[in-house]
Amino acid sequence: MAKQPQPISPLKNFFAGGFGGVCLVFAGHPLDTIKVRLQTQPKPKPGESLLYAGTIDCFKKTLAKEGVRGLYKGMAAPIIGVTPMFAICFFGFGLGKKLQQKSPDDILTYPQLFAAGMLSGIFTTAIMAPGERIKCLLQIQASTGEVKYAGPMDCVKQLYREAGIRGIYKGTALTLMRDVPASGMYFMSYEWLKNVLTPAGKSPNELSVPSVLLAGGIAGICNWAVAIPPDVLKSRFQTAPEGKYPNGFRDVLRELIREEGVSSLYKGFNAVMLRAFPANAACFLGFELAMKFLNWLAPNL
């Protein structure tokens, strides 16, 4: 029989999730830069080849042209955004779990964990949508060579000046379409893997570091397997000139499929999957370590 689980504390989830988010950005940002550059690279003119042949080519060209710093372009926005966002994400998951428990020692089913994960996706969109818009614009301006924005704050100011708050929140519906099902998948697969990897008679809270890394890494891959198509549409839509897609994501989807076929919805797949494992392994490890520390520091919170 497994040991009694620690009561769910959304507040501890909030702080531990924030720390997990910082770990995720440091581990995953270079491949995120490559993913966005691959997803948004312009269609080549007749007789010209693509700017980047693939993940490795984009990595080499970015390093050669901009050095290691080029891979960390636009990282200030996700660090500022990701820390509270992952705090809110894990808080939402903790709250979603707590709301479904009839008593503190109830063990939740996998559909219940999926529902709690979806709630966390709704919670994070308010921060996620503008953060992603700014990050994508900064990442693609570095690859096109046209410097329109001096940095994240300048980007916010210009977007607000041009289109008000709507300009900053462009792509919110697509962010929701991406994050709600993907977050459900993320947390459910992590909890499932933790249970699978837990030795008999032990608690999932006592998992070894390699097991946490493995569960977190695979959960990240499950999350992105669901999230990539809406993520491609979102990157396109958020970086498009004003008025290019009057009917929103439907226009983006039609144009992509007409010009590049269904496979274009999985653009940047290799970069995403290469990043998903280490970034999410780092995130969940950071979360679990912070959680242990908080449980030690304030066991009754």
Structure description:
By secondary structure, this protein is mostly helical. It has one domain: Mitochondrial carrier fold (Alpha/alpha barrel). The protein is built from nine helices and no strands. It is globular, with a radius of gyration of 20 Å.
CATH architecture level-2 label: Alpha/alpha barrel
CATH class reads Mainly Alpha
Rg result: 20 Å
CATH fold-level assignment: Mitochondrial carrier fold
Q: What are the low-pLDDT stretches, counting only 5+ consecutive residues below 50?
A: none
Distance between the termini: 26 Å
Helix- and strand-based class?
mainly alpha
Along the chain, the helix and strand elements come as HHHHHHHHH
Number of helices: 9
Provide the β-strand percentage band: under 5%
Q: Shape, please?
A: globular
Would you report the number of β strands?
0
Oligomer type: single chain
Instruction: Return the domain count.
Output: 1
The biggest beta sheet reads:
none
Mean pLDDT: 89
CATH superfamily: Mitochondrial carrier domain
Q: What is the percent of helical residues?
A: over 70%
